[in-house]
Write a structure and sequence with these properties.
The protein is an alpha+beta fold. It is 37% helix and 18% strand. It has one domain: 2-Layer Sandwich (Beta Polymerase, domain 2), CATH 3.30.460.10. The longest helix is centred in the first third of the chain and has 15 residues.
Length: 103
């Protein structure tokens, strides 16, 4: 996965702060391919109730500011049947977990 420990920490902290502590973050797309270069950060945020358009926009802006990279955010309510796109994204995603930073 092409995300540093600091980037992971920024993503998890921002998602928790803006989407609630129950939010689970799943990166998908090119950031999971260690051979790829560049690209944006694609995130599926799973929450108990999903996120409104305004909440997703705020999350996107704050993540882009914190990471210095373009970010795409989709959300899914935990107990709602996913859309076909959400299902495809989730199938290709990996749950994001905090990892120790390297000094």
């Amino acid at each position: 996965m092409r995300l540093t420990s600091d980037q992971v920490s920024t993503i998890l902290g921002t998602a928790s702060r803006l989407s609630g502590e129950a939010a689970v973050v799943y990166p998908f797309g090119s950031r999971l391919d260690d051979r790829a270069r560049g690209g944006d950060v694609d995130l599926l945020i799973e929450t108990p109730r999903g996120l409104t358009l305004l909440e997703r926009a705020r999350l996107k802006v704050e993540l882009e500011d914190g990471l210095g990279l373009p970010v795409d955010v989709i959300s899914q309510a935990r107990d709602v049947e996913p859309t076909p796109f959400q299902r495809i994204a989730r199938a290709a995603a990996v749950r994001l977990e905090a990892r120790p930073s390297r000094s």
